[in-house]
Amino acid sequence: MRLLLVEDDVMVASGIKLGLTDAGYSVDWVGSAERAEQAIDGESFDAAILDIGLPGMSGLELTQHIRARGLTMPVLILTARDALRDRVQGLDLGADDYMLKPFELPELLARLRALLRRSQAATSAVLSFGPLEMDTAQRRVLLNRQPLELGPREWTVLEYMLLQAPKPAAKDKLLAALTGWDKEITPNAIEVYVSRLRAKLEPAGIGLRAIRGFGYRLEIADAAGAGEPT
Predict the structure, then answer these.
(1) Which of 35, 83, 137, 192 sits CB 3.0–4.6 Å from 125 for a disulfide?
(2) What is residue 200's predicted lDDT score, i.e. its pLDDT?
(3) By the 8 A CB rule, do 25 and 2 touch?
(4) What pLDDT sits at residue 225?
C-alpha cells in the first residue's frame, strides 16, 4: 500500500515514516499542502495522513481540495488541537478519521488498517482466500494453517490482491503500491514477485491468473488452470 504523509515537522515525519515503512507500507513524505497537491496530481496513493497545522494551506483546506477533485482515498488527520470544532470541521470536509498528537504508533497503524479495509470493502483484519489467511494486524500469513514466509514486497503484492479478490488487481496499481519516490521499480518487477508467490501458493491449490493487458487475479486451482502465462 502506498501512503502520502503530509507533515511539516521533520522529526515527527521521520518517526511516522519509519514506523509505517517498518509495517510494510510505501510512504512518500512532503512538508506542505501545496507539495501534497503536486504529488496527488502526478501519483496514485491508497491513503493520506495529513497534519492540520501546515504552513500556508492547512490540512483542513487540503482535505477539502482532495475531495473536490473527486478522490476517495482515506484521509487521516493528525492534530495537536484538542478542540471539538476542529475535529468536526475536519470530518465534515471529508476526513475519514483523526488522531490527537501525541499518539502511539500502534494506534495509528490500527486506525490506518481500518480505513484501508473500509476503502476496499473489507470488514476484518484477516483477509482470506481458500486455504490462505493473511492477518494484517499480526503481520502473519497462514497457508493450510501453516505459517507462510513472505518478503516485504511479496506481502504488499499479496495483500493488494487479497483486498481486490475475487476481482483482478491492476498491474499499475500493484506497481504503485510498491513504488515510492525513493525507490526504482520497473513494471517487470511485478512479474518477479508474482512468480515467487505462485511458487509458494500453487502447491496449496491457489493460482495467480494473468489477465493480459490488465493484471492478475487470485483463483482456486481448478479455475486457475485456464490462466494466461506472464
Answers:
(1) 137
(2) 95
(3) yes
(4) 44
**Which pLDDT score, from 0 to 100, does residue 42 have?**
82
- Look at domain 2-119 and name its CATH class: alpha beta
Report pLDDT digits (tens) over 16-52. 999 998 888 889 999 999 999 999 988 889 999 999 9
Q: Residue ranges of the domains in the chain?
A: 2-119, 126-224
98 vs 185, residue with greater confidence: 98
Distances from the Cα of 50 to the Cα of 9, 32, 90, 213, angstroms: 12, 9, 11, 35
CA distances from 136 to 9, 24, 70, 95 (A): 29, 10, 28, 23
Q: Side chain identity at 151, as an amino acid letter?
A: G
DSSP helix/strand/coil, 26: strand
- 178 torsion bin: left (phi>0), alpha (psi -120 to 50), beta (else): alpha
What's the pLDDT tens digit per position in 56-73? 999 999 999 999 998 989
Q: Give the pLDDT mean for 120-139.
A: 84
Write the CB contacts of 104 (distance below 8 Å, at least 6 apart in sequence): none
End-to-end Cα spacing for the chain: 23
Asked whether this chain's domains 2-119 and 126-224 adopt the same fold, the reply is no
State whether CATH 1.10.760.10 applies to domain 126-224.
Answer: no
Give yes or no for a cis peptide into 102 (omega within 30° of 0).
yes
* Residue 118 main-chain phi, psi, to 5 deg: -60, -40
